[in-house]
Amino acid sequence: MKRRGFFKSLAAIPAGSALLAQQPAAPLNPTQGIQPPARAADELPKLDTTVAEGAADAMPRFFTPAQFSALEKVSDVIMPAAGSNSPGALAAGAPEFLDFMIGDSGADRQHIYRAGLDGLNAQAKRQFNKAFSDLDATQAGTLLAPLRQPWTYEEPADPVARFLRAAKIDIRTATLNSREYGAGRRFAGTGQYWYPLD
Q1: Pairwise CA distance, residues 132 & 124, whole Å
Q2: Which residues are bridge partners to 81 per DSSP?
Q3: In the chain, where does DSSP find H-type helix?
Q4: Maximum CA pair distance of the chain?
Q5: What three-state secondary structure class fits 62?
Q6: Mean pLDDT within 94-102
Q7: Angle, to 10 degrees, between the axis of helix 107-128 and the axis of helix 94-103?
Q8: What is the distance between the alpha carbons of residues 88 and 177, in angstroms, rounded to a whole number?
Q9: Which of 70, 61, 65 is nearest to 160 (CA)?
Q10: Neighbours of 83 (CB within 10 A)
């Protein structure tokens, strides 16, 4: 097609579409008349919208409620809030993220978390006759004593100590890399967290 022919066909497109718009709609069947016009835009149903971030709020799905409550307590002890510019693990959603992450991890990692959280709940019941999530800071600190032991290359034999060793790293990483933590920390006018482009 030559350039001149291309521009002629381009000029004919609006005229052709205008002619098609004037054509009546085809009848549904011969006994009926022409179809009624489509409903007006104001008659269309109104859909409620929501903020995209709120539509994806996580709900615990891997851990049992008792295990998840213990994980929240451990997260709060390991990474408490330190003022308005440093939200803690709970405000950063670290337990919810770990619930998702461990749920999609290998069986060995899942076993470490489940055995450790169940062990914490069993120790709390035995020593204080409460669930771990219901302990005060002093009581919880007593059961989290393995966190204060020096680090070694050998994995701890105790399931609670093995869990606490893994959870300490995971909770810190999840908190420090969260949107909430990054939004509170500004360097030269920018946050550490990447927000999606709208």
Answers
A1: 5
A2: none
A3: 3-22, 52-55, 65-78, 94-103, 107-128, 137-143, 159-176, 179-184
A4: 91
A5: coil
A6: 92
A7: 130
A8: 12
A9: 70
A10: 8
Residues 113, 77: Cα–Cα separation, whole Å: 17
- Whole-number pLDDT of residue 188: 40
Sign of CA dihedral 102, 103, 107, 110: positive
Alpha-carbon Rg for the chain, nearest whole angstrom, is 30
pLDDT, position 82: 80
Beta carbons within 8 Å of 59's beta carbon, 6+ residues apart: 96
Which phi and psi angles does 190 have, rounded to 5°?
Answer: -125, 150
| Cα 114 → chain centroid | 21
186 exposure class (CB count in 10 Å sphere: 0-12, 13-18, 19+): exposed
Q: Are 67 and 117 in contact (CB under 8 A)?
A: yes
Measured from the Cβ of residue 152, the count of other Cβ atoms closer than 10 Å reads 8
CA atoms in the 13 A half-sphere facing the CB of 71: 27
* Nearest residue to 63 via CA among 124, 137, 133: 133
**Considering the entire predicted model, what is its pTM?**
0.63
Enter the DSSP assignment of 147: G
Question: What is the DSSP code (8-state) at residue 97?
Answer: H
